[in-house]
């Protein structure tokens, strides 16, 4: 048959079954859109940071990066003077808070020189502006200008390095100037102006180096010699690797959700396509009768599948793009504490191809799969339970093997991300294999339980559930609910465990001091911005003692870890409840004595460190320490370390602090203490006073914001599942109208028939969801353990039975309610239809 | 038992023409009597059946089954009337998919009896209909004739006073038709069920006590090939 004729045949059939085809199209489109949006969100997060980094570093191959606050700017001349260096440009980066009236925003103050133009990066034009040489003004990205409601020339207050300074807005930067940095909270200033504003006179944070052709290794060797072990020499785009590592948990969890989204979408499509199976089987029979061979029949079906797949994928990608634009665009704000990154949405050809291929593959499987027996043997489709004995044994044994593998993975505390994900795959496959058997047993139980009921309602529901012709469709509906609830319960449960763990960390870290004096701004939630310790004079009887707290980010290997220098005098210098290996009392004693550090387990694993072992901290002044205990990552994905505040000062070669803790005198409330400290700081201080409770609240809010995307994707998956199940069931019910009419002829009322449809829907959807919830609790356990052992997150595990039940009940109720509306209409069919 | 008096049902065709599906039909069937209603396609047979089954209201006339005025029934009462007092055998074997033969036969009893009791009640009838070894078989495991016999069992399961049979042998070969009709006749006579048998097959009409012909909505004595009767 010619292609044009195949197309004409398709067109004719499309008119007859437009509703079912549209339903199938919707199913595939939903799956593709969720998959595409999740992929775009992930690609954009790391991709936008990589683009920004590349845009800044341009042709630079190496960076000379300070480990602490900075190094002397004369180092730039020394670098430029190296024989293999073609060009070099210095930069100063200081965390600050910009204020305008009551509006405030954490920013990264970046000091640059026109030398930056030499790097020839995508954002170089802005650095070549003449004003950079001598003006004393800031250049802010336009969105930030709008956020702070500033106008050109207007004053903006910067809280930086422990004091407040007034700066002027000189330029509004556009996307054409700074590319993806447009949405980043950066304030760009001429280097000398930035140095003056931040009190970092003659200091640089990084120098980007462009080697002469063929001089790469020579330059690296020269830079390493010049660094003398106190400055990092690494690839110019090394920050991208650090960011990738830090954002890994976010990316991985989004990726996992996208897989579940795709599965729900596929099952949706599969259920919808199954509605057209009788028509397609008839078509095969007709074509065969008319003398067409298997190749032609295959061509006709393939055309069906490809049209459906391509159109649905296109619709899904368009919808997914909108989802990525409007819903999945939240940035993990907690990463802003250590990285300045934009929110550019990046759609790569690979993302489009993956999403489209997924859609077309789903369509091919859904259309050709059920037709395979007809195509291969020329027979009608074999119902699943035609040979129940053999099939059941195969399903049971393979399901149990997968379940055992999943449980073993849960118990074995997965030590590799791969095994954790593998365990999740085992559980999903086990669930899908065991689902038909569990469902059959449930129906048998229901049959037994309703045997004594004098009503047609349970009988009709049970026989429909047992109908071999619609069995596959029923299973697809139940599987949709099972997969969606499984994913939701497992990931949301693990999310809740993680949130509880993070909340405890926030409480532990905040309670080190009663009242904190810190640099302001959300980006300083972990108290990592250094400043010169202020002199605080408070009336006697308010504060019993002050203590210096130090902290900052430090690059160790490919991780940007957070290092806390906890005061020895603090009641609990080591956060309680964060220990994984080691005794807190002993670790506290050793930390107070000095020379010991608590290291997060994942970092220790990477560095091959065990409790008691010595190591050299790659700080500005490399410092030997010993591991006193292993902890969680204290909520910072790349890892954390706690040492004595004095050890920290030596290791950083600076007396600067990043917080001053005040322990209150007995009887003084946190609010009273905070008020006295604010008075002591005075109105011109660039510092903020926060109570422990306030800090805990802010940290909790930030961690919740960081996990928002997961919550939203989970909700979308559940909504998609509800629509999928309701649509599939409604389709099934709609096709059963003639039967319902015949039942009416037999004397049964619309109400009885409707109740039987509702019962059938409730059993199918409810059982699918319940099975999903049950396996989801196992999945939650697996993921929580994986989070603890792989990333070292502080996870507080609990069996989220109530949450699982609520998700299960909500999805079941909403789906059954939607089905009920269709069921009511179907059941009110005119009985006369049954006597035609 | 069944009494129809001057029943009229007209429909308007899309072209505006009036179709006289049932035009002043009067008919009476006694308990245990089988009446064959013969007529070609489109003669109004099924319309008449729908009116008797309270599925369609006539434009005028009266329909009584026993002492019951069928036309005065509410929707709910009409459903109860069909469930308890009328047995319906159709050309298409209306099997509940996924249900066994005995469950299909006992379908009309599930509202008044527990399932086990309903099966027990209908089992002797199934044996009588030669389906004793087919009780647990699903619809697709039965032959067309067997399925039709299951539906006869269903129709008679509630011991109705009226049986409506719409081309009950339409899908059967002549031998099977004969078997089914013989059983139907025997059971209806034995149980005193008034039976209205709609057919366009003169062979089937031959099993009836009386045969009438519906032509253009009007009832008349059957004047077809009398050799079959």
Proportion of helical residues of chain A: 55-70%
Over all CA atoms, what is the radius of gyration of chain B? 17 Å
Radius of gyration of chain A: 32 Å
Mean pLDDT of chain B: 86
Identify the strand order in the major beta sheet of chain B: 6-7-8-3-9-10
Beginning-to-end CA distance, first to last residue of chain A: 37 Å
* Mass-distribution shape of chain A: elongated
Overall structural class of chain B, as computed from helix and strand content, comes to alpha/beta
- Under CATH at level 1, the class of chain B stands as Alpha Beta
List the keywords.
heterodimer; A: about 850 residues; alpha+beta; 4 domains; 21 strands; about 55% helix; elongated; B: about 230 residues; alpha/beta; Rossmann fold; 6-stranded mixed β-sheet; 7 helices; about 25% strand
Describe the structure.
The complex is a heterodimer of chains A (836) and B (229). Helix content of chain A is 56%, strand content 16%. With 836 residues, chain A is an alpha+beta fold. Chain A folds into four domains: 1-58 and 244-382, no CATH class; 59-235, no CATH class; 438-502 and 699-836, no CATH class; 520-686, no CATH class. In chain A, the strands form three sheets. In chain A, strands 12, 13, 14, 15, 16, 17, 18, 19, 20 and 21 form a ten-stranded mixed beta sheet that branches. In chain A, α11 (248-274) runs parallel beside α14 (349-368). The longest helix of chain A has 42 residues, at 750-791. With 229 residues, chain B is α/β, with parallel strands linked by helices. Chain B is built from seven helices and ten strands. In chain B, a hairpin with a 2-residue loop joins β4 and β5. Chains A and B meet through α18 and α26 of A and α1 and α2 of B.
């Amino acid at each position: 048959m010619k292609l044009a004729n195949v197309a004409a045949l398709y067109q004719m059939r499309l008119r007859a079954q437009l509703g079912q085809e549209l339903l199938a199209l919707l199913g595939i489109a939903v799956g593709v859109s969720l998959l595409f949006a999740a992929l775009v969100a992930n690609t954009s997060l790391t991709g936008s940071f990589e683009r920004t980094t590349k845009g800044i570093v341009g042709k630079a191959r190496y960076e000379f990066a300070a480990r602490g606050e900075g190094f002397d700017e004369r180092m730039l001349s020394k670098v430029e003077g190296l024989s293999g260096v073609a060009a070099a440009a210095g930069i100063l980066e200081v965390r600050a808070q910009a204020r305008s009236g009551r509006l405030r925003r954490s920013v990264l103050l970046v000091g640059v020189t026109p030398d930056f133009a030499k790097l020839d990066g995508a954002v170089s034009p802005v650095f070549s502006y003449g004003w950079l040489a001598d003006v004393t003004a800031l250049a802010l990205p336009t969105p930030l200008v709008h956020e702070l409601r500033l106008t050109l020339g207007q004053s903006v207050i910067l809280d930086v390095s422990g004091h407040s300074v007034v700066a002027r807005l000189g330029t509004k930067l556009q996307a054409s100037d700074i590319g993806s940095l447009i949405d980043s909270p950066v304030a760009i200033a001429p280097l000398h102006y930035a140095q003056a504003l931040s009190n970092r006179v003659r200091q640089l944070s990084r120098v980007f180096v462009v080697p002469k052709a063929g001089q790469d290794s020579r330059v690296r060797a020269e830079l390493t010699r010049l660094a003398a072990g106190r400055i990092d020499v690494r690839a110019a785009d090394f920050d991208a690797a650090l960011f990738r590592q830090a954002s890994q948990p976010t990316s991985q969890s989004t990726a996992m959700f996208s897989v579940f989204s795709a599965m729900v979408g596929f099952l949706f499509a599969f259920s919808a396509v199954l509605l057209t199976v009788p028509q397609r089987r008839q078509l095969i029979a007709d074509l065969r009768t008319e003398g067409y061979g298997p190749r032609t029949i295959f061509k006709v079906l393939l055309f069906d599948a490809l049209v459906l797949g391509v159109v649905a994928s296109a619709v899904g990608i368009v919808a997914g793009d909108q989802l990525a634009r409007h819903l999945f665009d939240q940035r993990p704000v907690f990463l802003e504490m250590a990285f300045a990154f934009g929110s550019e949405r990046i759609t790569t050809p690979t993302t489009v191809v993956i999403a489209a291929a997924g859609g077309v593959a789903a369509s091919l499987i859904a259309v050709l799969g059920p037709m395979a027996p007809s195509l291969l043997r020329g027979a009608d489709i074999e119902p699943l339970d035609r040979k129940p004995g053999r099939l059941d044994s195969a399903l049971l044994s393979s399901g149990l093997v997968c379940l055992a593998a999943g449980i073993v993975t849960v118990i074995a505390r997965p030590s590799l991300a791969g095994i954790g994900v593998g365990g999740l795959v085992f559980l999903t496959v086990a669930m899908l294999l065991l689902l038909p058997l569990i469902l059959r047993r449930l129906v048998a139980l229901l049959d037994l339980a309703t045997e004594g009921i004098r009503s047609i309602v349970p009988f009709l529901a049970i026989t429909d559930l047992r109908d071999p012709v619609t069995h596959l469709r029923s299973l697809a509906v139940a599987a949709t609910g099972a997969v969606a609830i499984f994913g939701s319960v497992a990931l949301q449960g693990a999310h809740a465990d993680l949130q509880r763990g993070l909340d405890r960390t926030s409480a532990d870290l905040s309670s080190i001091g009663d009242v904190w004096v810190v640099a302001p701004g959300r980006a300083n939630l972990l108290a990592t911005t250094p400043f010169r310790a202020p002199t605080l004079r408070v009336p006697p009887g308010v504060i019993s003692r002050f203590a210096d707290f130090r902290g900052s980010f430090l690059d160790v290997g490919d991780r940007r870890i957070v290092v806390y220098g906890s005061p020895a005098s603090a009641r609990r210098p080591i956060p309680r409840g964060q220990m994984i290996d080691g005794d807190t009392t002993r670790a506290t004693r050793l930390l107070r004595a000095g020379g010991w550090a608590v290291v997060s387990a994942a970092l220790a694993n990477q560095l091959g460190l065990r409790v008691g072992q010595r190591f050299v901290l790659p700080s500005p002044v490399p410092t030997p320490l010993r591991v006193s205990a292993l902890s969680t990552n204290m909520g910072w994905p790349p890892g954390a370390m706690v040492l004595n505040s004095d050890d920290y000062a030596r290791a950083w070669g600076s007396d600067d602090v990043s917080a001053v803790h005040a322990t209150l005198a007995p009887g003084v409330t946190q609010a009273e203490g905070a008020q006295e400290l604010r008075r002591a700081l005075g109105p011109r201080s660039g510092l903020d006073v926060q109570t422990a409770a306030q800090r805990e609240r802010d940290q909790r809010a930030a961690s919740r914001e960081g996990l928002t995307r997961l919550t939203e994707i989970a909700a979308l998956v559940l909504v998609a599942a509800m629509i999928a199940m309701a649509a599939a069931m409604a389709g099934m019910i709609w096709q059963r109208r003639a039967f319902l009419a015949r039942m009416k002829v037999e004397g049964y009322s619309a109400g009885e028939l409707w109740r039987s449809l509702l019962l059938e829907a409730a059993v199918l959807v409810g059982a699918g969801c319940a099975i999903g919830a049950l396996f989801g609790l196992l999945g939650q356990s697996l993921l929580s353990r994986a989070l603890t052992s792989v990333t070292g997150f502080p996870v507080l595990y609990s069996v989220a039975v109530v949450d699982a039940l609520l998700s299960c009940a909500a999805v079941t109720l909403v789906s059954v309610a939607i089905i009920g509306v269709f069921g009511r209409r179907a059941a009110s069919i005119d009985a006369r239809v049954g006597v035609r | 038992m069944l009494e129809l008096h001057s029943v009229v049902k007209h429909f308007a065709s899309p072209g505006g023409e009036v179709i006289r599906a049932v035009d002043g039909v009067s008919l009476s069937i006694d308990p245990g009597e089988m009446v064959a209603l013969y007529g070609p396609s489109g003669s109004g047979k099924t319309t008449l059946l729908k009116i008797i089954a309270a599925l369609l209201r006539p434009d005028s006339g009266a329909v009584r089954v026993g002492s019951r005025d069928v036309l005065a029934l509410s929707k709910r009462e009409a459903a109860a009337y069909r469930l308890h007092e009328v047995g319906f055998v159709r050309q298409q074997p209306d099997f509940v998919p996924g249900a066994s033969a005995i469950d299909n036969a006992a379908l009309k009893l599930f509202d008044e009896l527990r399932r086990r009791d309903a099966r027990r009640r209908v089992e002797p009838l199934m044996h009588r209909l030669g389906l004793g070894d087919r009780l647990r078989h699903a619809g697709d495991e039965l032959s067309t004739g067997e399925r039709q016999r299951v539906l006869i069992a269903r129709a008679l399961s509630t011991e109705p006073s009226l049986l409506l049979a719409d081309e009950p042998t339409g899908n059967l070969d002549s031998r099977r038709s004969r078997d089914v009709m013989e059983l139907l006749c025997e059971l209806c006579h034995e149980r005193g069920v008034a039976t209205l048998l709609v057919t366009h097959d003169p062979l089937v009409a031959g099993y009836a006590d009386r045969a009438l012909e519906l032509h253009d909505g009007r009832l008349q004595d059957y004047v077809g090939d009398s050799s079959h009767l």
